[in-house]
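Handout, page 2. Input:
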Amino acid sequence: MLRASVLRSVLPLTAAVILSSCSKSPTTPSPGEATTIRYTALGASDTIGVGASVSCIPFLACPDGTGYVQLATRRMQGQGRTVTLVNLGVPGAVLSPEIQTLGNSMGRGIVSNVVQNERPLIPADTTLLTLFIGGNDANTIGLAADAGLGGPDAAAFIQAQIQAFGATFRSLIIDIKARAPDARIIVLNLPNLAAMPYAAGYTLTQRRALQSVAVGLSAQMNAATSQGVVVLDLMCDPAFYTGQTVSSDGFHPNDAGYARMADLVLANLSGTPSAPRAGCSQMTIY
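Output:
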C-alpha cells in the first residue's frame, strides 16, 4: 500500500489531469444498451482490488487487475463495448471529512474521503458510476465507540454516526446526479462486517457494536433507491458469508468475492433491479 505522503502528492496531480478531460455529454442510453460506456468508480481499497490476486496502484491503468472494477470493465469490453474507466478510489478512504477526522483522532491515518477528494473529480460525461464505501467508516465508528469517544452511551453514539452517514450519503447522491446527469449510479452496500474473519478476535460486545454499525450504514445506503439509485445487496447475499469470498486479511474480498461483485454490477446495467431486502438473517448474526 502507498504511504500517506505519496497519496497526498498524487491526488492534486491526478485531479488536474482528470478535470482537464471532463466534458458534458448529451443524454445517452443506459450502460446495458450502450456500445460506449464512460465508467467512474468511487470508493476505497476495493476499487483497486486489494485482496485480489492482482491488485492495482491508485490512479494508474491496471488492465489485468482482478478487483470488481477491473473485472467489470474487461467483461464489458469483451462484449464489444468501448469502455473508458476513471477509477478515483483511494485505499483507506471513508465517506466524509467528519469520519476522516474521527479516525485520525485515533491514529488511523486516513488520507482521503469521497466527498472532498473523489466527488469533485467525477467526469460530467460519466454514464456508469459505481460506489462501494463504508467498510472503513464502520471500523472507525466501532473503534471510536469501543474507546468511549462518544461518551458513556455507545449505542446512542453509533446511531448518531449512522444518521450522519445517511445525511452525507443522500447529499452525495444528489451532487453526483447533478455532476453526471446521464450516469446510472450503482451502490454496493456492506455485508455484516462483524461476521468477517478479521473480527473473529473481537469480544461479543465489540462484534455486536460492529454489526449495528454495518447494518445501519447499509440501511442508509439502501434508502438511496428512492433517489433512483441501484443498490446491490451484499448485506443479505449468502455468498459473502461462506469464507470462500474473503481474502487472507479477513476483510477484503478475494478473487471470488470480487467476481461476485462484478457479476452483480453487470447484471444491473439496465432495467429495474430488485430492491435490497429490509431484513435477513445476516443482519442479526450476533
